[in-house]
Amino acid sequence: MTEAAQATSSVDSRPLLSVEGLHKYFPAATSRFRRNERFIHAVDGVNFTLAKGESLGLVGESGCGKTTTGKMLVRLVDPTGGHVIFDDGVGEPTDIATLHGKPLKEFRRHAQMVFQDPYDSMNPRRTIFDTIAEPLQVQQVGSLVDRIDRVTEMLALVGLTPPRAFLFRFPHELSGGQRQRVAIARALIVEPSFVVADEPTSMLDVSVRTGVMRLMADLAAGLGISYLYITHDLAVARYMCSRIAVMYLGKIVEIGDTEEILRSPQHPYTRALLSAVPVPDPTVKRPPVMIEGGVSTVVNPPAQCRFYARCPLADDYCKTNDHPPLEHKGQEQIVACYKA
Amino acid sequence: MSGAPLLAVEDLTLHYATRAGEVCAVDGVSLTIEKGQALGLVGESGCGKSSLALALLRLQPDNAQILSGKVLLDGVDLVSLSDEAMRAYRWNRIAMVFQSAMNALDPVYRVGDQIIEALEQHVPSARKQLIERVQELYDLVNLDHSFIARYPHEYSGGMKQRAIIAMALACEPDLIIADEPTTALDVIVQDHILREFGNIRRELNMSMLYISHDMAVIAEVSDVVAVMYAGKIVEYGTAEEVFTRPIHPYTQALMSAFPSVTGEKHELATLGGEPPNPLGLPPGCHFHPRCPFATDICAEQEPPTVRRGEHWADCWNPPEEQGDD
């Protein structure tokens, strides 16, 4: 990496995260006696950048690799290849894809994750205080008294007031929305540079969801945190993210400014995805979606566009050429398609 | 749409006996569904919408009890039927599609055999005819015949949901109750299923009770919409009326809190508080602690019904009626 070359540029112009050719192959079947040659290409050469304070939405259907991508950024999953350059403008830029040992543990305070299910992601036997203070304990920050102060502060910040009333309660005493606020407090207590939020509001009711979405947006603006916001819901991504990346079978097929993509989607998959979103207005009749079926898994995929089998625009050129590269199609829109 | 409705629910009340106390899940609900009509029931988790659906089929859990009310299907009260007589109604006249279609199929039997087994119970006939019937059903839901002899794990999520819908259609019921049938599916698959559902329903002139928390899906599938909150239906009217001129503040809040990918990006409204605990419902209007328009009387007395033609809502402080022109 050319860290020295970048040292002269200003802090803000350098992205916080630069993801380059990241992939994760899972063995499709394991045999004790034979070398495994079949791999599921869950994430297959993904490139994007995440600027400081930016929210990037990663959208796609289940099984497209969006969660795996998110987990690799916080190293809950180890990549099989590629680089994730983390540069917070304070320390040296580091490739977190290959970190281990003590540097990895130190990195973890910069990167946190909020999970989808607020019922499953907390230990039912630990109090809210223990839950939120755990990252501090792991990172050995402050004394017990300091930690109580910090947790109280965090509870107030995420809107659980009065904080003292929540400190020693257990997760089962809280509603789904409140638990998700606890999960956010736990992620933010170590003052991370970025947070991977994996469908943080998809299990919440509509009337509670907006509050959690607004809280996350306010915290990002106030604390300068970047989000990788993983969601299957384009409407939610629209409200949370300034840019979105659309993923399909391990590849990013379109990435760009949120409103631009929603206004004029270029990739046939993005178009299909967008046209399938129900409209909360009974007077609107949506046109039918142009593509069939759901996402399959990719075991050793052929060298052609991943979307070939379902694409309404595909022709022989798409069949005989490798997956198309990402190219500029709009002002900030980058699309991987030969036909768009 | 004339004459007596297909289904008329009158003042239905269902209580659960729990260790923490009596929970009133369905509180005096009345609604009607005409022949060929689709009623969308929308509400958040715990509002009682699934309990209502189960009660219509008398499939409520053992600790639940229907305290009062009637469920009239073509004039016959299902609540007072014997268990044996009720069995003849289930599936033949009213079929249900559950949310967890993934788990509704037995993993160790071929899907076709499971449909045949169920069919045999209701229309006993020769195996050859039954197989033909399953083929017809698979055509109806756009599944390939080759999948009849396959096992559930060979189906994708959307295909399982299609097979379940095929099963529900097997006896050509008059009414289908669909409880969040597409919630676990991806949007593209959801779109296909919703369209097929609509086509089949029109073709067979079937009535439907469609339950969902998703305002957008409800807007697309329903002719008539009922909004449920804390065990009560708080607003009822045609889809167009409810979505364009909502009366109840809760409906308004749901609508303005719902993000959309189309149109101008509007600010999402935040509704304060949490859905109420069914063990300690607030007095008066159950919605008053979260309502931006609440006044003193809302906390004291149950709200009156405001009627605007066929469209009504229970509220003390409804918005001014807007003129059409």
Description of the structure:
The complex is a heterodimer of chains A (340) and B (325). The model of chain A is unreliable at 1-11 (pLDDT under 50). Chain A is globular and about 70 Å long. Chain A is built from 12 helices and 12 strands. Chain A is of the alpha/beta class. In chain A, the strands form 2 sheets. An 8-stranded mixed β-sheet of chain A has the order 6-7-8-3-9-10-12-11, sandwiched between helices. Chain B has a single domain, classed as 3-Layer(aba) Sandwich (Rossmann fold). In chain B, the strands form 2 sheets. In chain B, strands 6-7-8-3-9-10-12-11 form an 8-stranded mixed β-sheet, sandwiched between helices. In chain B, strands 2-1-4-5 form a 4-stranded antiparallel β-sheet, covered by helices on one side. In chain B, helix 5 (127-140) packs across helix 6 and helix 6 runs parallel beside helix 7 (187-204). Chain B is 31% helix and 24% strand. The chains are: A alpha/beta (340), B alpha/beta (325).
Report strand order across the widest sheet of chain A.
Answer: 6-7-8-3-9-10-12-11
The CATH superfamily of chain B is identified as P-loop containing nucleotide triphosphate hydrolases
- Spatial ordering of strands, largest sheet of chain B: 6-7-8-3-9-10-12-11
Our count of helices of chain A gives 12
Please identify, by name, the CATH architecture of chain B. 3-Layer(aba) Sandwich
For this structure, the quaternary state is heterodimer
Number of domains of chain B: 1
What is Rg of chain B? 21 Å
Total individual domains of chain A: 1
CATH topology of chain B, by name, is Rossmann fold
Q: Quick check: average pLDDT of chain B?
A: 89
CATH superfamily of chain A: P-loop containing nucleotide triphosphate hydrolases
